[in-house]
Amino acid sequence: MKMKPLAPVFVVIWAAAIGSVDGLAGGFAKVKGTPARKTGSAAAAKTSARAAASSDDITAKKAVSNLFSVCAHIQDLKLYKPTWADACHQIVDEGGTRIVAKRDIRRGHAVTLFPIHSLGLRTIRSDGRKARKNRESDTEFVVYDVDRDGEFFGRGGDERAGLRLKLNIPLDRKQPAAALMGDRKRHVLFSTFLPQKSAQPGWLGGRMRLGDESTGNSITIPLPGAAPLCAVVATRDVKEGEEIIRCASRPDLEELKSILAEEHGKDISMLGMHVQMACQTTLEQVGADKAESDEIHSSELGPFHAINLNYPGLKMIHQDPDIYSVDDFLSADECDRIVAKACPHLKPCLVNNERNGRVEQDPARTSTNANVPQVEVPTVMRKITDLTNCSPDKVEILQVLRYKKGQEFVPHTDGFSGPYSSCGFVDSTRLCTVFCYLNDVEEGGTTYFPEVDLDIRPKRGMAVIHFPADVEMREDKRTLHQGSPALDDKWLLTTWVWKDPRTEEEYGEERLPKLNDDII
Predict the structure, then answer these.
(1) Per CATH, which fold does 11-278 belong to?
(2) CATH homologous superfamily of 296-511
(3) pTM for this structure?
(4) Distance CA 478, CA 424 (A)
(5) Residue 491: CA count within 13 A, CB half-sphere
(6) To the nearest 10°, the Cα dihedral for 41, 172, 176, 466?
(7) Which residues have C-beta within 8 Å of that of residue 254, sequence separation ≥ 6?
């Protein structure tokens, strides 16, 4: 399900480019405050190529704003504390400021995270031979929290003087944010770190001294699937009490990424879900901006994913758009065991706070959820694949959702406008939604499709199937639906069938934590 768009609450500035920064992982440069200037939008495009570039700029800027919103949320220690927060600490003495290991840290393991006090997008407008010597035409789009950091950046859009560290964040195509940044030759994503701010446990990146090949023992790299979040990673085994020193080079980068993903997969996966939410919100915002000009008439949609129309008990409850249901898709025993399996592992879902625009927990409007490994529910998976005519590798990770009294899910669609990369699927889209009610709800908690005025009352074991996009990856906005407030607890098992198989190893089923020994 897609999240509600984030409301903009952060100050955005455009500034003259300060200069080039090493684009390699972990490369950053000291930068003093440079006067910034607010500018209007770019001059009207004179060619179709420039128009396309302008569109990319808009998408990338929206992505930067949403990504920073999520990063600001994650850096609140009241809401999230990295599991590696105790790996190192800051020591200030006569010798200066040092970051020192509090325990032994193995090679490839996370030492700390790199703080993000602002997030920016550098748009390279100079070209040819002049690009290296003259970058005055380049611009920077910077987002920061005016309430938290206005004293460092200025509240009127003018940057104040002061020491800053800028970290370029390279994005490979596996990063969800990469698809939103447009042409990598034109757009450079970077974060800003303010050393004068108080150090936070777990967020000590940027405070290490720079060493050489013999003294350096750490490097900064983007978290796999969770950039712009970056981790400082040990390049060799580090002993307790040893100072953490940055490497000038990037040794064995791919191997270090692999070790990091394996060792901290659960944490990185959780952080990646937040980043994906920001990316998905960006797509929704861009799609909404283009809705009038890009809208596809329902008569142009199709064909849709072909499910098994001979599945026992399948019945059509609405035609065009087609919506189906299956009574007793899951037995009462299966429903109860799935609830028991997921219950101890439920975690809060995040939504947008309309008052301040931040992504945070809101008990009045959110559900809780838990991911269920396919290997723990083989019978359920056989039913899903038989019904939807698909292989297991096209099925998104199964989720159990719980809505308590009064909780709801605002109107949304499950599809995307065009190819999208998320949850281990690359350049694909969701073709089919399948959800099953795991309990009876006496009052409230219905699933309502407002575009077709269809209201479905929860019934234990009943599955509902609809199609958020056609096989040409065009979203069907008629499938807009919402979870109405429940007066009783409502439990759901939900998943989505994608056009193409899941290919990203870091989202593999084998990486999901085991819930219990009950095989359903």
Answers:
(1) Beta-clip-like (2.170.270)
(2) q2cbj1_9rhob like domain (2.60.120.620)
(3) 0.51
(4) 26
(5) 19
(6) 120
(7) none
